[in-house]
Write a sequence for this structure.
């Protein structure tokens, strides 16, 4: 079974703190994604990566950065957390294909981040 | 936007009944995917249907795709209390290829 794990289920941080969210997948997938999910707004893509050290902006990259030093690990970084970044963060992975969304995505359990 | 829009937003049925959820989208797609999300958890992929397919089955799930109407439906037969969850459709086009999620249908199956 594909397994995508996220470092924390719940996280509480203070405004201005630097926050790291880690995601690890064990199926050798090339593509990895970070989404945030908010009531009424659905899932929105923050960043994705299709290879080690490669990253592409999604629809809402402002205030976030990412790092992919190893194939299995994709980190989301909030450089200076703000209250409007309080959200559920979901990581996903998929096999590479010429069309990014050609294959199903496998999601982690999510990290519910609260920024005070 | 080619965002999928699910209908209804919420659905409440009794165990054993069938549940039907619909998804409409706006532009041509490469494929359409359905996901389930249990409360406060990650999404689980249910089924993927490509633009040249019209129907797919997986266990108690049946998905149809009508590209002329730009719509899809997800049917869950003989529902169980464990099917209670939010169900999302997500579409993929051939340009860029990002998954675009709809707002979801909240299904409640009462025992």
């Amino acid at each position: 079974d594909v397994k995508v794990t996220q470092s924390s289920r719940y996280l509480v941080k203070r405004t201005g703190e630097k926050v790291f969210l880690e995601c690890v997948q064990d199926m050798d997938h090339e593509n990895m994604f970070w989404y945030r999910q908010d009531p009424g707004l659905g899932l929105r893509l923050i960043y994705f990566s299709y290879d080690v050290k490669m990253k592409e902006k999604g629809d809402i990259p402002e205030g976030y950065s990412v790092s992919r030093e190893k194939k299995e690990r994709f980190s989301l970084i909030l450089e200076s957390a703000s209250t409007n970044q309080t959200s559920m963060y979901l990581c996903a992975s998929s096999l590479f294909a010429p069309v990014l969304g050609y294959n199903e995505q496998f999601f982690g359990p999510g990290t519910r981040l609260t920024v005070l | 936007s080619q965002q999928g829009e699910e209908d209804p937003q919420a659905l409440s049925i009794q165990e054993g009944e069938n549940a039907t959820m619909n998804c409409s989208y706006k532009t041509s797609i490469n494929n359409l995917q359905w996901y389930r999300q249990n409360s406060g958890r990650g999404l689980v992929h249910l089924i993927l249907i490509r633009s040249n397919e019209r129907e797919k089955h997986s266990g108690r799930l049946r998905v149809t795709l009508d590209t002329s109407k730009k719509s899809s439906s997800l049917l869950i037969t003989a529902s169980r209390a464990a099917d209670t969850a939010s169900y999302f459709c997500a579409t993929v086009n051939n340009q860029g290829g990002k998954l675009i999620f709809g707002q979801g249908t909240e299904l409640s199956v009462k025992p």
User: Anything to note?
Assistant: The radius of gyration of chain B is 13 Å. The longest strand of chain B covers residues 43-50. DSSP finds no helices and eleven strands in chain B. Chain B has a mean pLDDT of 93.
